[in-house]
Specification:
- The chain is α/β, with parallel strands linked by helices and about 290 residues long.
- The chain contains 12 helices and 7 strands.
- The strands form 2 sheets. It has a 5-stranded mixed β-sheet, sandwiched between helices.
- Strand 1 (about 25), helix 2 (about 35) and strand 2 form a beta-alpha-beta unit.
- The structure holds NADP nicotinamide-adenine-dinucleotide phosphate.
Length: about 290
Amino acid sequence: MLGLGPMGRALARALLSAGHPVTVWNRTPGRDAEPLALGARSAGSPAEAVAGAPLVLLCVRDQPAARAVLEAAGSALRGRTVVNATSIAPDDARANAAHAGAGGFRLLNAAIASPTPTIGRPEGTVLLSGDPELLAAHRTTLRALGTVHHVGAEPGRAAAFDAALLDLFWTTAHGYLHALALARAEGISGAELAPFAQGLPRLLPPLIDGFARQADDRSHPGDRSSIVSAEAGLAHVAHTARARGLDTSVLDAALALTRRAVAAGHGPDGVSALVELLTGEPGGRAPE
Ligand SMILES: NC(=O)c1ccc[n+]([C@@H]2O[C@H](COP(=O)([O-])OP(=O)(O)OC[C@H]3O[C@@H](n4cnc5c(N)ncnc54)[C@H](OP(=O)(O)O)[C@@H]3O)[C@@H](O)[C@H]2O)c1
């Protein structure tokens, strides 16, 4: 296990709990107390850590860190299998796959799509892309981390899923943080708002599947809710927030996009037509 931040430690913990022998390495020494207490062995360098390991897990901050560790491991990686569980961009995952090929080691790209407390449990979500036979060879070990989903042989797929899911997470989180700020400005505490906010996620499952279907079909019927109606709703929220002196930059961005959709003739369409605008595709008009 290369990298012992919160996620690296969680991955090491899950492997050790499942009875796998684990060797750990971290750039800054002294951060291995927990895995060592659970029975891990400590290595002084990435090359020493990977020597003899049938499976190498890498989980560090970002792409430059991941490449630095792979470079440091050098020829010790030859013939080994690395699962890179660092969050990186799809193009970086593709570049890393080419780097692995040139360096004589095998690489699976992993995106961990759930937080540290889920690791080692069925809720732990690990998306993997790369050679399916390689995954099959290590599935038993990787299963110790959580539920493993193979999302494609193309190396960048897991990172692409991850980016889309993080897009959903962060825009949703920002939406809620805005709502808390707006509520506070109107004298409503977070505790007062939260029970009503809890109702929203219950509306989401049919919306998630419905929007996905409409995006795939490029068909956006506005019979239940139209973009022109969403524009009015957003404008009123932005107006309320502005009247209380709040930063409305995120709301303004959403409103500007919605107004562009109306200007492009999508007003009567359902809000899922915004996908067409975001991707710059011309389609998206609901059938008359
Ligand atoms: N935490 C979560 O809930 C979560 C969930 C999903 C995905 N992830 C992903 O998992 C990865 C690791 O996250 P994390 O939570 O463990 O914390 P993190 O703060 O993102 O990463 C910390 C780890 O990266 C190492 N590192 C940073 N720069 C380095 C470099 N230049 N060379 C070598 N090592 C370097 C740190 O080593 P030092 O100790 O030496 O600084 C430490 O081991 C990230 O890509 C993150 O996006 C995390």
